[in-house]
Specification:
Keywords: Signal. This protein has 242 residues and is an all-beta fold. It is built from one helix and 16 strands. The chain has one domain.
Amino acid sequence: MSRSRRGVIIGAVFGLALLALAGCSSGSPSPAGTSSAPTSSTAVAGAAWLDGGHAVAVVSMGSSSCIPAAGAISASGQKVTVEFAAPPANQACTSDFVPRATYVALPDGVNPAQNVQVTANGSVTGTVTLAGLTQGVATADQTPTAGWIEGMQSGGELSAGAFAFVTWGSSTCPPALAAVTAASASDITVVLAAPPGQKTCTMDMAPRAAVAVSPPTVTGADVTVSFEGDGITGSTKMLGTR
């Protein structure tokens, strides 16, 4: 699948399972009620490389059930602009305040080996710069990938060691993040749990971006991320820098 065709599915609803930000490595979301207006911040919290440098995750803070959707995506050289739409006004949103990741396929012509500046407009605003990848990761289409979240503000809401990852499947039934474990300083395992069995899932194949936090024992510069659970398997090298 070419990068241009990837853009066809950008408007899909991206599910995500999230870690609480207290440095916890269990990955279980905090309990939350619902409200008609989500708690949110319009500022970009960071960004991460995904999909071998063909896409990025733009991270924002707010309700885990009302993730901003990426609309129009354009590029001028290495500067990428993304228009974000807010959820419908009548959509009920959980009242939690967590990092949400939106998958953004990069337009053709953007070189992942060079620094990329991403500017968000609309319901998410701000600019973040990702350092160019020193070593690209060749990936097949629709395989899970991960990248360190870069551009975080000192003293911000994101925890040290935060990373984004993407899995592929039904846009309405993303897997839940059960745990993040580490076998060594350079090996992370993301454990995924299936959505409730009674939930009806759409038959599309979409990227489901999520945010997690690596255990504090992970200090290596060359980190491998493995996935297991919910029928998702595979390993990938962590993209970007901490």
